[in-house]
Amino acid sequence: MHYRVSGGNSLSGAVATNISKNAAVAMLCASLLNRGKTTLKNMPRIEELNRLVEVLESIGVSVEWREDGLSAQAGDMIIIPPEKVTLENINRDSAERTRSISMFIGPLAHLFDDFEIPRPGGCRLGERSMSAHVKALAKLGIEIAESSGGNFRVISKNKQPGEIVMLEASDTGVENALMAAAKIPGKTTIKFASSNYMVQDLCVFLEGMGVRIEGIGTSTLIVHGVYEIDEEVEGYPSEDPIESMFFLSLAATTKSSITIERCPIDFLELELLTLEAMGFTYKKGNVYTAANGHTKLVDITTEVSNLHSSPEKIAPRPYPGINIDNLPFFVPVATQATGRTLIHDWVYENRAIYYMEMTKLGADMVLADVHRVFINGPTALKAAEVVCPPALRPATLILIGMLAAKGESTLYNVYPVNRGYEKLHSRLAQIGAKIEAVE
Length: 439
Hints:
By secondary structure, the chain is α+β, with helices and mostly antiparallel strands. The protein has helices at residues 21-30, 47-58, 92-95, 105-108, 131-138, 171-182, 197-208, 241-254, 269-277, 330-335, 351-355, 392-404, 415-418, 424-429; strands at 2-7, 12-16, 38-44, 62-66, 74-80, 114-118, 143-147, 151-155, 163-165, 186-191, 212-214, 220-225, 233-235, 257-264, 282-284, 288-289, 296-302, 339-344, 364-367, 372-377, 385-387, 407-412, 434-438. It is globular.
């Protein structure tokens, strides 16, 4: 699929933030912990989840979609495990197309003493080490090693509770540790834990399974593991702050006034403060609660703003800092801001290189090294034909640039976008974007 875009137009109207890809993925992986029926509500119909469902079905798990979600882009997912999970016919192709397969390790460690899974794939952003997972799970007696044939071998016969100090505040690393600790009876402590939105969602879900967790939202989590989980469980992944940020960036870059509904405000505060420092103005509505009973939501109405460069470099930090997945969305904003802005993407080796694809749209950018980009603005962006980078967030920032650029652009091979968004073009059209999907 490709996107054909006629850009340079102001947008208007309202758009609701969809459910978080990362929270939905974590909760789907955690459903493997339950021997009973799990219902995950309002799950997004995105390619990342499709790949994981294909893997689950290949190992014997029943997964059924029901059209009971809150939007046309979502549905409820019913997961029923088999009497015995088997890995002999695991769908390697699907597993190798998503990095999220790594989060099967924690749950599967409770079903097998010795097993192998394919190495994870997903976005190509340089060497994304599994060290945080390996070292954390080792503290619980779960050993991970390279195996032949592009697999990870996992030996889990000596599981025990423990104290973990995370090598880094890895979201997926902490999630793997949480899922492993959930069914190891006793107390496991995880220090320097990520407290990001998807980790909090997973914690709330595990508590619904009967696993008590202390310290949700902090950097120290104490998990009181249980011997077995055999319940009829419902889970509610919450709204995606990264999607809210996509629309905030789109509004700022295209100088549009739109209302972005259901924004998870606790995970956007520093992003909004940084945008304010660049001259961005908006109005924020009253706080209300997401369906999971935990996440705080607000509606944000953007205003047409005269932007200037950030007085400080813009760089990500573990929560409550700027989210690493929100960092790319400052790139198109900076192209429309007067002055020079420095974006420092210190986490990934290659992602800043993908940012430079914006130069094909006329952006004035300098790549200082593989982590730092200087952006000079404001620049009148121009239409272009661009092949989608093999990474979700860089792909979407190019789409924002195309929507701001006068003329007709084409973004080719948008599978990376579809990994995280379903029918994004349709939702953009609802707020006045001139965009269509073509085969």
